[in-house]
Structure formats: C-alpha cells, structure tokens
Amino acid sequence: MRLQVKGVCFAYGSVSVLEDVTFKVQGGETLGIIGPNGSGKSTLLRCLARVLKPRMGTIFLDGKNLAALRGREVGRCLGYVPPPGTEHAFPSTVLETVLQGRRPHLTWGVGHADLAAVTRALAYLGLTDLGERQLGELSSGQRQKVLIARALAQEPEVFLLDEPTATLDIRYQLEVLARMRELAAEQGRVVIMVLHDLNLASRFSNRLLLLHGGRIVAAGTPRAVLSPDNIRAVYGVEAVVTENQWGLQVTPLAPLEMEETGERAGEVLAARA
Fold first, then answer.
1. Pair 17, 40: CB distance under 8 Å
2. What value does the CA radius of gyration of the chain take, rounded to a whole number of Å?
3. Which residues of 89-113 are buried (b: 16+ CB within 10 A; e: fewer)?
4. 2-12 vs 56-61, strand pairing mode
5. What string of DSSP letters covers 146-167?
6. pLDDT tens for residues 234-262?
7. CB contact set of 37 (below 8 Å; sequence gap of 6+)
8. DSSP state at residue 133
9. Any residues with CB less than 8 A from the CB of 58 and at least 6 apart, and which?
10. Rounded distance between C-alpha atoms, residue 155 and residue 159, angstroms
11. What are the distances in angstroms from CA 59 to CA 35, 40, 246?
C-alpha cells in the first residue's frame, strides 16, 4: 500500500490554504502532520479523505487516482476520523455507531464478517462493555474512541485521524496512539494523524510533516523535523529539544515577537525552496 500526494493546492474562495503539497507514505508507516493553528493540517487531511476537492494536484492510492474511485471503493480504502466535536450525535448505541463503519462492505445485510469486525474494533480499544450504551451518554473522550473504533471496523488500507487524542486523558492518549502505530506496523496499513502535541507526535510517528502557511516546511524523521530552529521559525517559540529512552522531548520556553516569527518562517521556506 502506498499513498502519494503530488502538488496538492486548495483554497477557500480566494484564500489559499494549501500550496504545492507533495509527499508519500508507505504501508506500515505512521505519519504525523504537525504545525500551528491555521497551517492547513485539517484541510490537507480532508483533501486526502475526499471530503474536499483540491484545486490542483493529484492523490494516488497504490497508483490509482483517488478522484477516480467510486464512493464504496473510497470507503473500503480510506477511514476518516474527524476532529472531536464536529460530528452530530445521533441517537444510537455504541454498537450501532461502530457498525456504520461496515457500510462500504455491506451487500444485502449485516453478516458474520461484519459483526466480527465490529467486535474486534470494540475490543481493540477497550469498548466492549460500552456496546449497549447510547452515544449521547458517553463522555467526549469515550465518544472519540467510538469514532476511532468505527474507522477500525471499516478495515481500510489508510487511516486518516484529525486530532484523535484531543479529548482523551493521558492514559487513553498513549493507548490509542500505540494501537494505531501497532496497526500500521503489524498489518502494513498507512496511518496519518494530525497532532498538536509535539512530544506525542514524535513518539508515535515514524515520520513527521511540518506545515506552515499551507506549505511543507520540513519532512522526515522526528529528529530531523523537530529542531529548535524549525520550532522557532514555525511556532514562534524558543524551545529546548532533548532525547530520552522514549524519544524526543520538546520543552517550550517563551514566545517570540510575531514579526520575528514571520521573518524566520520565510527564511526556512526560502531555504527549502
């Protein structure tokens, strides 16, 4: 499995949000997309999920143009989990919600394979005991885990998760991210996640994509991307980056003046070009 993105551009009206975004991800890899607010992270993920149509550029899945695939084919290939709070909570149980992930696979009705996939997804995220609970009765963190389980039940080749840990406590953050990395490594799936926590992104991603102003500022291993210079240029923050047995540790120290941040970001982008 291989996802390849070539020259993707997107704009909301006259406002450009993504410019010439190009990268590729192999099966077995977990890619973390990071960057400050408004850098285009969620827009990029929605373009990959075919929720949005790029103004320019092409997205290939195993050599096939994603735009040419039909809805059911897309559902079998891509599992998209939107950011917390963006989906309406319909009156349904946890089991019914996770079962929705099987829609791309259904023909005449729900079969044994569908129920088995739902059972596995619930167990994988420790939700089995909540199966009969109404979605509206759950905490925001529990609902987020249910939406991730719905994507797991879908059994796609590519998982696209937008801020999957935003409403989770620290235990479940570690659990969910470890599960997704494990899924990619053991089953050869592609996992792409938008993350704000740089330490979690470093720890649970094979590679990182750092966005600023809709462009890729840096791409590569966490060690290569999360340098003090890149953090200073893109986030406008002085930071210390250290390394321990669990990976990199980014400690923010103080913000820079906005003018200085813009100048440094421009220098980094110019150097990359």
1. yes
2. 19
3. eeeebbbebbbebbebbeeeeeeee
4. antiparallel
5. HHHHHHHHH--SEEEEESTTTT
6. 999 999 999 988 889 999 999 987 655 55
7. none
8. S
9. 5, 6, 7, 8, 65, 66, 67
10. 9
11. 21, 16, 33
Tokens describing residue 262: 């813009």
Query: Residue 22 has which token pair?
Result: 């190009």
What is the identity of the amino acid at 253?
Answer: L
| Contact assessment for residue 85 and residue 144, using Cβ atoms and an 8 Å cutoff | no
Residue with tokens 């003090």: 228
> Looking at residue 270, what is its pLDDT?
56
Q: What is the distance between the alpha carbons of residues 189 and 207, in angstroms, rounded to a whole number?
A: 15
pTM beyond 0.85, yes or no: yes
Q: Which amino acid is it at 260?
A: E
- Identify the H or E element spanning 214: none
Q: Where are the alpha helices (DSSP H) in the chain?
A: 41-48, 71-77, 94-99, 112-124, 140-154, 170-187, 198-204, 222-225, 228-235, 258-272
